[in-house]
Amino acid sequence: MNWCLFFVVALGLDLAMAGSTYDYYRLPTALLPKKYNLRILTHLENPEDLKFSGVAQIKLEALQNTRNITLHSKSLLIDDSKITLTQVNGEKKDNCISSTEVNAVHDFYILNACQELEAGNIYQLTLPFEAELNKQLQGYYRSSYQIPETNETKWISITQFEPASARLAFPCFDEPGFKAPFVITLGFHKKFTGLSNMPVREIRPHETLPDYVWSEFEESVPMSTYLVAYSVNDFSHKPSTLPNGALFRTWARPNAIDQCDFAAEFGPKVLQYYEEFFGIKFPLPKVDQVAVPDFAAGAMENWGLVTYRETTLLYSAEYSSLANQQQLANVVAHELAHQWFGNLVTMKWWTDLWLNEGFATYVANLGVEHIHPEWRAKERESLNDLLTTFRRDALESSHPISRPIQMVVEISESFDEISYEKGSSVLRMMHLFLGEESFRSGIKSYLQTFAYKNAEQDNLWESLTQAAHKNGALPENYDIKSIMDSWTLQTGYPVINVTRDESGKVAKISQERFLLNRDIPHDQRKGCWWLPLSYTTQEEHDFNNTLPKAWMECSKSGESLSKTIEDLPGADQWVIFNPQLATLYKVNYDAQNWKLLIETLTKGDFESIHVLNRAQLVDDILYFAWTGSQDYEIALSLIGYLQREREFLPWKAAFDNLKLVGRIVRQTPHFDLFKSYMNKLITPIFEHLDGINDTFSSIEQQDQILLKTMVANWACQYEVLDCIPKALAYFQSWKSSPNPDETNPIPTNVRRTVYCSTVRHGSDEDWEFLWTRYKKSNVASEKRTILSSLGCTREVWLLQRYLELSFDPKEVIRKQDSTLGFQAVASSEVGFLLAKKYFIENVDQIHKFYHPLVKSIGRLLSPLSEQVIERKDLEEFKEFINHSGESLSGINQTIQQTLEIMLTNVQWKERNYDQFSRSIELVL
């Protein structure tokens, strides 16, 4: 998924407001919330005074004797004179609050009771509170949309509590381990609709406010505070309940309800699939999914009330590409998978966030594949997870999947590629080496055992070990904890070195951590991962068997134990380890094996190698060439086979790597060589796919549409054949349309390419035309495409103007989308220096613009990190970081990774540039 000032107002009581004596980052465990009754009155009528007020009634069980009640509260006005505390079991007794303390570091609100709360008793604590509906996209906040016909602004309220923002909305025990049922009652003007986690139980008039109502919702199942959700809005909805399924509704602003059809159809289907997959019925009576105009994260899995950015829930067949549609399906599948993994069973503490996010990412791949097998999405998403992990986790500054968490900002930083994509990749690995029956029965046992409770990764390992031993999927002397702890508790992943003897029949296998920074000595690259070793040979080419033929083990002290593989074919036949990239490791072969693989790829039956392994070979060889452990001549010889390749996955692996090399080389005198090379590489596939001509409707395989979309983008970047003239012609045809906001003749799948190419090669007038279309568009995915394209211009003044528009709160670009504008400018060769200068000079204002969502600042650094290639520029940026202090606080992990990426670019330029240029000349 995707932090303020602490207010306590004493009214009528002379309560001491001492600094807190309790300073541990976790809540005390003396008290346990048993049930919340929340009443929240929301005012949306006056745009100048959008606010809410409420009362939290919390039933508490005392597990130990205590005088202190410590909970979370942040930016709430609390009327201390109206706080009550009563013992409600046995003989009812009134207590009182003698004083309060705050700890602003940990957002603690500490109430000191007049009399000791005694273990075994039940108490009721009642706290009134109020606050403004903030603009910060967290807690209980405001969002808006416009009615184009009248230019009227409509306001709604919505929540975003993960990871630690429920405390911004009501006083609570805001940690995942404090689960409790909630009874929520929302008060609002009767012209609005109220939504929450559960169905409405009763609507009744407000006692004193005319035209206001109270909407009381049914009591929820026990859940963590970060999953509580509610909204007051005037949205429309589309019902789509399946037989015997939960009530299912998809909500959006009224003028976008026609874009809900796909999500409304897909959502119930994937929910039903999960019921079958997990063997556990969805436990709530309904699901609402809501498209929110202002939303910081991609989506949020609130139990029964799932919230989304508009780009991840709304789909328009007229404006959205196939890639948009598949991304939407993946996000919906991800959030609904959380209803079991995360909501039903929740991690005990944020250390194991990956149990939520890794599982939802992986299981979403299975769900989308089940419902749309024609997309072939499972292989593509699995490869994407692996490629993302290979890149991020090759940094020394990466972190373990399961990591200690002591501050809220550290929780926020954990919502990254390691928790999501690496988590997904290691779960896929486990699924493949355990087999279907053991994996699913272990998961089902885990979910049943810990339903409505909290768990940690060791609990999952225990369930899976039992299932594996029962089914014979794992040797009795092996256990999942030993294997998987090596993947979740240490940073990085291994490269295995495969060296065959002269006969070729015996191979020695060793492993070490793979790092992009080759200046790190070998003794600091040690590490040991338990590796299920699967492989196939040129003779058998059996890529379907991913079960391990052997294991690389670790000693009890964590040392790597080398492995010898015997009975391989002769030295004239290749061997490929890791069929279908079943496990997260890279493979470097000896020279002879690479030579045999290159011969098959370039001259032989290259399709006899599984498509995932062709992608693996491309990705591995380009990584090894980058780090200097292979020669670029060998790497370019291998990827030269791509002129024969007609599948998406190997091209995806190649382009991901060549993009990074291209961003360095385009700043050098030899870019013309690289451009010629890319032309030669891309031309055959571009011609095969008929350029950017609109042949999409005649393409039977859906992933070929994605391939054509991707190739067209690269072809226009490197001016292959007629790509640019065709793109310009498409755009001019659109400009000539009598009503360009209603009619767009550009094929949806290549709009990003056409827009960018035209803005890059066209006129100022073309830029203005596109900017006008952005302001008038009603489709979020189209707006996003335009934002990513406006930065393609080479006009400095337009780029400068666009940077300023992106961070102007009075402009039409929503805060959540401002990063897109900056990234678009920073990614171009002309815009890079402008964006870097703008960021450095305006970092204080940018910090204020995003605060408290500082994670957004980190997103601005990625395109900058990829283009610093000189040591002096790296040192300058380090100096800037050192002097920016508060403005870059909260993104320390991102900063360290940014600096390391810059360093590896500098190393590449110093070590590889001349050799790379010579190798390019040879293949041309």
Automatic annotation (TrEMBL):
Name what cofactor the protein needs.
Zn(2+)
What Pfam families does this protein's entry cite?
A: ERAP1_C, Peptidase_M1, Peptidase_M1_N
Active site positions, chain numbering: E335
State its location(s): Cell membrane; Membrane
Q: Which UniProt keywords apply?
A: Aminopeptidase, Cell membrane, Disulfide bond, Glycoprotein, GPI-anchor, Hydrolase, Lipoprotein, Membrane, Metal-binding, Metalloprotease, Protease, Signal, Transmembrane, Transmembrane helix, Zinc
Where in the chain is the site Transition state stabilizer?
A: Y420
The record's section on Gene3D superfamilies has:
1.25.50.20, 2.60.40.1910, Neutral Protease Domain 2, tricorn interacting facor f3 domain
Q: Where is the Peptidase M1 membrane alanine aminopeptidase domain?
A: 262-487
Q: Which molecular-function annotations from GO does this UniProt entry contain?
A: alanyl aminopeptidase activity; metalloaminopeptidase activity; peptide binding; zinc ion binding
Q: Which residues form the Aminopeptidase N-like N-terminal domain?
A: 33-227
Q: What is its EC number?
A: 3.4.11.-
Q: Which GO terms describe its cellular component?
A: cytoplasm; extracellular space; plasma membrane; side of membrane
BP-aspect Gene Ontology terms: peptide catabolic process; proteolysis
Provide the binding site for Zn(2+): H334, H338, E357
**Similarity comment: family membership:** Belongs to the peptidase M1 family.
The name of this protein is Aminopeptidase
Classification from the root reads:
Eukaryota, Metazoa, Ecdysozoa, Arthropoda, Hexapoda
